[in-house]
Specification:
about 25% helix; binds magnesium ion; alpha+beta; Creatine Amidinohydrolase; five-stranded antiparallel beta sheet; about 250 residues
């Protein structure tokens, strides 16, 4: 069921989105060679606690998962696509790209945001992969309008990515968000124009393209969470939480 948010919820979602964006940008500033994934997670947790809020992913158990997610921040390096569990053993190196994904619960409402960050200086093909993924997210956001449908978002992302020949991850998608971290509808990163659920004012959705340098296929690690590319090539991920309005799409996590 798609939940239309009340004006009171939207007020809280705006503040929550702002707080989430501040935290994720601070975590981004910490990314450097020698830093571990666990240190980034600890920092995100500390910042959220200082604000008096709650990390939405910590102890969250998605349907089908055997155990709850053990961290606040997902940290996915290079060929890891999403949902990487931050570990002490994961030490960032110059030339890596690292995806950081964070959900926040502020006064009972949820927002979700992710970005891929270079570690020091990275190869031009990694830089381009990140740029195209970010731009693909914005191509999708531009379709998040009253009168459009979910398929228009997927179509916009897919058409934007096509000339670059990257693999678009299909088995993972964006989603509704707000009263819970994952709500209806699914927002795939591919699709047909004019198909799927209608977008109406007051809907809040997370749009999150995941693009791979090689194949679109991904495999899950034995840890039950980390998705990585099937061919071991790098992947990038950008995500914002968006409010559908009568006018321009509003990026709550800007
Ligand atoms: Mg998400």
């Amino acid at each position: 069921m798609i939940i239309i948010k009340t004006s009171e919820e939207i007020k809280r979602l705006r503040e929550g989105g702002k707080r989430l964006s501040e935290v994720l940008h601070k975590v981004k500033e910490k990314v450097a060679p020698g830093v571990t994934a666990k240190e980034l997670d600890d920092y995100a947790f500390q910042l959220i606690k200082e604000m008096g809020d709650r990390p939405a992913f910590l102890n969250y158990k998605p349907s089908g998962a055997k155990k709850p997610f053990p961290a606040s921040l997902c940290v996915s390096v290079n060929s890891e696509v999403v949902h990487g569990i931050p570990k002490n053993e994961t030490v960032l190196k110059e030339g890596d790209i690292v995806s950081i994904d964070l959900g926040l619960c502020y006064m009972g409402v949820f927002t979700d945001m992710a970005m891929t960050v270079p570690v020091g200086k990275v190869m031009p093909q990694y830089k381009k992969l990140m740029d195209v993924t970010r731009d693909a997210l914005h191509a999708g956001i531009d379709m998040a309008r009253v009168g459009k449908k979910v398929g228009d978002i997927g179509y916009a992302i897919e058409s934007f990515v096509k000339p670059h020949k990257y693999g678009i991850v299909e088995i993972l998608s964006g989603h509704g968000v707000g009263r819970a971290i994952h709500e209806d509808p699914f927002i795939p990163n591919f699709g047909k124009k004019g198909t799927g659920e209608k977008l109406v004012a007051g809907m809040v959705i997370a749009i999150e393209p995941m693009l791979n340098l090689g194949t679109k296929h991904v495999v899950m690690d034995a840890d039950g969470y980390t998705f990585r590319t099937a061919d071991g090539k790098a992947s990038a991920h950008f995500e914002h939480t968006i409010l559908i309005t009568e006018g321009e799409p509003e990026i709550l996590t800007a």
